[in-house]
Amino acid sequence: MEKFVISGGASLKGTVRISGAKNAAVAILPAVMLADSPCIIENIPNISDVKSILFAMEKLGANIKNIDKSTVEINPKNVNSFLVTKEMAEGMRASSYFLGALLGRMNKARVAPPGGCDFGVRPIDQHIKGFEALGAKITLENGLVEANAKELNGASIYLDVVSVGATINIMLAAVKAKGLTVIENAAREPHIVDLANFLNTMGANIMGAGTNIIKIRGVETLNGTTYSIIPDQIEAGTYMAAAVATKGDVLIDNVTPKHLESIIAKLRECGAEITEYDEAVRVVCNNRPKKCNVKTMPHPGFPTDMQPQIATILSLADGESVVTEGVWDNRFRYIEQLILMGANVLVDGKRAIINGVEALKPALVKAVDLRAGAAMLIAGLATVGETEVVEIERIDRGYEDVVEKFTSLGADIKRVISPD
Ligand code: EPU
Description:
It is a single chain. This protein is α/β, with parallel strands linked by helices and 420 residues long. It folds into 2 domains: 205 residues, Enolpyruvate transferase domain (UDP-n-acetylglucosamine1-carboxyvinyl-transferase, Chain, Alpha-beta prism); 207 residues, Enolpyruvate transferase domain (UDP-n-acetylglucosamine1-carboxyvinyl-transferase, Chain). It is built from 14 helices and 24 strands. The strands form 6 sheets. It has a 4-stranded mixed beta sheet with strand order 22-23-1-24. A 4-stranded mixed beta sheet has the order 2-15-17-16. A hairpin with a 3-residue loop joins strand 16 and strand 17. Helix 8 runs parallel beside helix 12 and helix 10 packs parallel to helix 12. It is globular. The site of uridine-diphosphate-2(N-acetylglucosaminyl) butyric acid has 24 residues, from helix 1, helix 5, helix 6 and helix 12.
């Protein structure tokens, strides 16, 4: 087991380069299996969730060649298995995308239910509703989700909840279906637009991605292509939050500022000075953060995946803030860990009432999930003394070179082997 040991208290200063978006990569990589010829995918983040997807694709028959740290060439020609076992799906939420991608490729899929972060119930009923509307039969056999279709035909699908995963999965299954599919109340996240752009580059006909109505006119074949994944909005937001919490001055490079609008708006309310450039943002914070209220919502609202990071800033703010979770049932499990560091937070259902303290104190804390883990790093970096963060494999799921990146900003953070 490994842990992070952080000797915090220094203001972060310098430039950090953001990697490719995890949540775009985990959709685009399975989508490669819809092509007839090889694809080259660039700007892939080197994180364990991506490694799990590539491992599963190799088992399905894809030929994968690493060109460099962030580029792979994938030849899907020999993908002939449609079985994603529990071992292959372990630990990643995005295994469900194999359902859509394999259905789209060969009209059948058998996939172990997804793992990933524990935020209470994580249903896939909207994915199933979409597949069924396209003509697939879905059953649960021996703990595996089975999807079978004679053929897939376009349909109109209204999502009862705005779901990133269901929107992506339906796009994957519908892109080669016969006729027109319309997804209403679709999710609008940047990674949905990125997937649509990728599929369109391969020859798909998808319109409206980024709005809440997506129209997909099925095509017979998709060709291989070269495509570069968008920068990671949440990794960028995490370094921005770390700059604010440590009263730092950080240039966050290789980002799309448009994707960061809600994060920029809220960090400005917290007192940060933020300058936007074409592909970078500079975050400067000289004073104690200010209180503010935050409600998470689907894009373009404030992202739920930034909720723990901003709550950590607010635990140090002057005054009382209320953070309301508007996406997941239970995303406050990390609050217990923040309280171990001296934060003053009361959780009341989907709201956390945070009374800022002047300083947190170092402690031994757990990364209870990926973004919660990022929040613990921010808390440790902002706190004088030695904080230890354990169960960090959850952080490695989504943050490339996290030690190297924080170290380059002047942080004292080490990855060490923990005997227990
Ligand atoms: N939901 C349903 N039925 C469904 C699907 C979702 O009721 O069939 C509900 C969920 O329970 C939740 C809401 O809809 O309350 C939104 O879930 P969504 O499907 O949008 O989430 P997801 O696709 O499972 C992705 C990201 C998460 C991120 C959410 C929301 C990936 C691989 N994961 O999950 O990212 O929190 O969208 O933006 O894209 C992370 O990166 O740390 C992470 C957890």
